[in-house]
Automatic annotation (TrEMBL), chains A, B:
UniProt keyword annotations, A-Z: Cytoplasm, Phosphate transport, Transport
Taxonomic placement: Bacteria, Bacillati, Bacillota, Clostridia, Lachnospirales
Subcellular localization: Cytoplasm
Primary localization: cytoplasm
Family affiliation: Belongs to the PhoU family.
Role of this protein: Plays a role in the regulation of phosphate uptake.
UniProt superkingdom: Bacteria
Keyword flag Signal: no
Organism of provenance: Coprococcus catus
Gene Ontology cellular component terms for the protein in this record: cytoplasm
Name listed for the protein in its UniProt record: Phosphate-specific transport system accessory protein PhoU
BP GO terms, sorted: intracellular phosphate ion homeostasis; negative regulation of phosphate metabolic process; phosphate ion transport
Domain PhoU positions: 16-103, 119-204
Length: 218, 218
């Protein structure tokens, strides 16, 4: 059975990488829909969330099969149970990307608000976190996982920066006060995406060390 | 098999009602955590989201069993496939209630901002929409389902009202400008919950009429 088990674990790794790439794409589509004020792209992003949901279910089914048929122990068991946790956060990121696309349908044109460039940065940072987090899972690279977690500070700083700037913009009775308020809500969604990407990296660390991050830090 | 099928359909109805009550409770806990600035309640709300996720999986498994073993047609088939769609929106509402609880952990004390009473109203309206939506599913009551959909205008109006008031508060350089910005983001979460509750009611209408709302309106 061992060879079959290894093949199935390889399949699991490939699927996790693919789901990571799907999430990256969803974030990219969502921010594109927002910045480009692009209705079609927004609808594509919302539809794409269903593909991500299906991917989650497929990976979940594979994990269940591995757990029931192979009854893995120790590190193999952690690898599979971590995958089950990771895909929940990945699916939530897909939801948030879809929510950002939904927002872009309701928002005024925010594309000429300066802070949009910081939103793009938040998007890029979170995309990188997701992709590197899933890579760290497959390569079992603790350092990369820790870098992903550290990177959440960059995302949080960007959020604080955007919040400051947008509140100031509203306080100054900027002509686009309401659009600034809309953009603030979008920034919050990206900040949450960063939180979920951090969770992913924390599960990677658990799958490698068997310790949850708080314990591992002790 | 018919009797067994009826029993399983009854089980499905009971589960949908229970999941509706769980969602109602999650929203209630989330807004309580926010208004009471209550860290313990916030953590409870976040944990409770896992129970809701499990309930979704249980109902999904029951639906799959019904579809595969009983191969239902027409109205029975619609009832089960609608349930599969409804629980996705219900689970998303659980996520949003959990996100509101997460927010309440990061926010300043917003409990003394006047608009908090409107947030409470949004919470009450959306709780009512979820509960009545699931009841309409079980009682196959088209009017109640349509009332739920109409009620989303009340939620949207409350959001617009809160947004206006909070942006004005910030423009006036109110001492709590940043807390006002925080509250705006919370209001957005409740507005999204209203959207998901509307989706639930639209699936109820489909399960009864076999038509999607846009068609049904024609």
């Amino acid at each position: 059975m061992r060879n079959r088990f290894d093949l199935q674990l390889k399949q699991l790794n490939d699927d996790i990488i693919e789901m990571g790439n799907m999430i990256e794409r969803a974030i990219e589509m969502g921010v594109y829909a927002l910045i480009g004020h692009d209705t079609d792209k927004a609808k594509q992003t919302i539809d794409y969330d269903m593909d991500i949901d299906h991917m989650e279910r497929d990976i979940e089914a594979l994990c269940m099969k591995l757990l029931l048929q192979q009854q893995p122990v120790a590190r193999d068991l952690r690898q599979i149970s971590s995958a089950l946790k990771m895909i929940t956060d990945m699916e939530r990121i897909g939801d948030q990307a879809s929510d950002i696309a939904e927002l872009s349908l309701q928002l005024g044109d925010v594309s000429d608000i300066d802070e949009i460039s910081l939103i793009q940065k938040m998007a890029n940072e979170t995309m990188m976190m997701v992709v590197r987090g899933t890579e760290a899972y497959v390569t079992k690279d603790l350092d990369v996982a820790h870098n992903v977690i550290d990177n959440d500070d960059v995302v949080d700083d960007l959020f604080d920066q955007i919040k400051m700037a947008l509140v100031k913009r509203i306080q100054d009775n900027h002509v686009k006060s309401f659009e600034a308020a809309d953009l603030l809500m979008v920034a919050k969604y990206f900040e949450r995406i960063g939180d979920h990407a951090t969770n992913i990296a924390e599960w990677v660390i658990y799958s490698i060390t068997g310790k949850h991050v708080d314990e591992a830090d002790n």
